[in-house]
Amino acid sequence: MKPTLAFIGLGTLGTVVAERLLDTGFPLVVYNRTPNKTEALVARGATRASSPREAAAQSELVLSMVSDCAALEDIALSPEGVLAGLPAGGIHADMSTVSQRTTRQLEAHYRAAGRTFVHAPVLGSKIQARTGTLRIFVGGAPAARQRCRPVFEALGEQRWEWDEAERATAMKLGVNLILGSMMVALVEGLVFACAAGLEPATLLEVLRGSALDAHMYQRKGGTILERDFAPSFFLRHMRKDFELMLEAGAELGVPLPTIAAARELYVAAQARGYGEQDYSAVVRYLEELAGIEVRERASGKA
Question: For residue range 252-279, what is the model confidence (pLDDT) as tens digits?
């Protein structure tokens, strides 16, 4: 019989991960700060908890996926948090993108309380979560990682593991560093092509199959041309991740000049009202600056 899990944080990706766990037969207790987001999962058989503490008390393993460091620290360490309800020997495996400082501190807090914190951020979006093909970075004590393995096998096709939580955190930040840099390069290239009177679709065609190509360029380039900015990953979350990268870089003594510039671009795009759109919507801010809109056919200056 599969163990009862708790899942905390039913955002864009978290909801799909929770659905995948139900689909693969795990009994599930769910909590979300906005209770109505639990309704569809409860209708499918999940149990609703009134707090992270209550969710943890009913579960053998707690998973969470929340928006930022403050949210994770709150659901973990507040009086009604996970640590207050987690049984002796219990595990909290967080899948959020947060700072190395946060995961390092939480790992120490849980260890002192006789519990275990594991950090397991993921690479992938709703499609990969739905099909169980996420890539998962797992940092934590070996025995805890072993206990989490059946759950992670249901969610992901590949895992990379380390003995310290913050190593998994660092890998996730490194991956998102490359992802964010690629998006900035893509949108700058598309806006430049349009301003020069070129077909932006032709730019993607030239990249396709070349040494410069990436699946992300084709997929996100296509949605940009279609003017589809429905969020698979919020622009405001990418801005937050850039700030986490800069914090980690400062701690490690690693300069990140490209990320510093990209962070300013995303701050400006969020200030223009694009924070709740997909992170590719940064193109809309560049379009405003250039006075042109990227569409399937370039039409010169707007």
Answer: 999 999 999 999 999 999 999 999 999 9
Residue 295 has pLDDT above 90, yes or no: no
Type of residue at 221: G
Q: What's 190's domain CATH number?
A: 1.10.1040.10
- Domain region containing 45: 5-163
Catalytic, out of 2, 37, 126, 172 = 172
235, 269 Cβ separation under 8 angstroms: yes
| Chosen domain end from 142, 163, 184 | 163
Q: Is residue 83 included in any domain, yes or no?
A: yes
The gap from C-alpha 181 to its chain's centroid, in whole angstroms, comes to 16
Both tokens of 280, joined, read 């590719």
Structural domain count, the chain: 2
pLDDT at 99: 98
Asked whether residue 20 falls in the same domain as residue 145, the answer is: yes
Rounded Cα gap, residues 105 and 95, in angstroms? 16
Same domain, 128 and 183: no
pLDDT tens digits for range 42-68: 999 999 999 999 999 999 899 999 999
Query: Is there a catalytic annotation at residue 172?
Result: yes
